[in-house]
Design goal:
With about 300 residues, the protein is of the alpha/beta class. The protein has two domains: about 110 residues, NAD(P)-binding Rossmann-like Domain (Rossmann fold, 3-Layer(aba) Sandwich), CATH 3.40.50; about 150 residues, Dihydrodipicolinate Reductase, domain 2. The strands form two sheets. Strands 8-9-10-7-11-12-13-14 form an eight-stranded mixed beta sheet.
Length: about 300
């Protein structure tokens, strides 16, 4: 039986829903800065509520921890987990500092601790199908978008020193997909502006222009100043146009060629189930090679968004 702890009770609730279905898992503790949220989570999924993660990590016997915190809070929780020899599933982005993330990686590797970054779309059946199609295509341009209709209410999200901005905190999923599908970013330029929310600490619109090592160029843009909420990646190849729509509750892939138009759908929850399956199997078996979506790779994605 794997004993799991959760540091954070926001997005981590989605991970709790997934792992709670497994007969080989027991949730032993949940931390939230608001103890009410921790109590609500433990009523649903079991475990002891905490408003101090240090106390939880000290008191409970834990095999692995899911860390889902605002980006600026990464660092100390990971350090304690390393000291306690606790493997970690860390939600994206893994930090707002490449240096902090690199220090965590070095310490974890010395102690034999597994680090897993939560880039769920790497575990999407449709992303795998898309990658297969692209093996036979010559891609010349892609256009990614992550747009919202308003500003999230959480105070930390609109402060650059806490979230890193929308490109770092949200559009990171698209940057990670671009790296996965087209190779490492070899040239980049980030352009930002404030059109509507001029008093905020972060830009309300951003565009990341990139060139990848396999030759494709493109733009990933994000905004919370518009009237449409959408996220996805549009890919232009010599013979085909492909549109991957990401988000909840469905992931959709639209493939359009000269003579045909095909559409595929997937429940977004399946991506989360698969990433947890891979992580927990690595923890159970002690085989870190199973973690193809590793933390070292997540640092490269972080670096590309900053």
């Amino acid at each position: 039986m794997l004993r799991l702890a959760f540091i954070g009770s926001g997005y981590n609730l989605k991970h709790m829903e997934v792992v709670a279905e497994r007969p080989d898992v027991k949730i032993v503790g949940v931390f939230s800065r608001d103890i009410t949220n921790a109590r609500n989570a433990t009523r649903r999924f079991g475990g002891v509520p905490y408003d101090d993660y240090s106390t939880m990590l000290e008191k409970e016997e834990i095999d692995a921890a899911y860390i889902g915190l605002p980006p600026y809070l990464h660092g100390r929780p990971e350090e304690i987990c390393i000291e306690k020899k606790i493997h970690m599933f860390i939600e994206k982005p893994v930090s707002i500092s490449v240096k902090t993330a690199q220090n965590i990686l070095r310490r974890a590797e010395r102690r034999g601790i597994f680090l897993f970054a939560g880039y769920k779309y790497r575990y999407s059946r449709l992303v795998h199908k898309l990658a297969k199609i692209l093996e036979k295509e010559k891609v010349f341009y892609f256009d990614g978008s992550f747009n919202m209709k308003n500003v999230p209410e959480k105070e930390w999200w609109s402060r650059k020193s806490m979230s890193g901005g929308q490109m770092v905190e949200q559009a990171t999923h698209l940057v990670d997909l671009v790296r996965l599908l087209f190779g490492e970013v070899v040239d980049r330029k980030l352009i930002t502006t404030c059109v509507t929310f001029e008093k905020l600490d972060i830009p309300d619109s951003s565009a990341l222009l990139v060139k990848c090592e396999r030759g494709a160029i493109g733009c990933i843009h994000s905004s919370f100043a518009g009237s449409v909420a959408e996220a996805g990646l549009e890919i232009h190849a010599a013979r085909t146009r492909l549109v991957l729509t990401t988000g909840t509750p469905k992931v959709k892939l639209l493939v359009t060629g000269n003579k045909a138009r095909r559409e595929f759908n997937e429940d977004e929850r399946e991506c989360r189930k698969e990433e947890s399956r891979v992580f927990l199997e690595a923890v159970k078996s002690g085989n870190g090679q199973l973690l193809k979506n590793n933390y070292r790779d997540a640092i490269l994605t972080l670096s590309a968004t900053l």
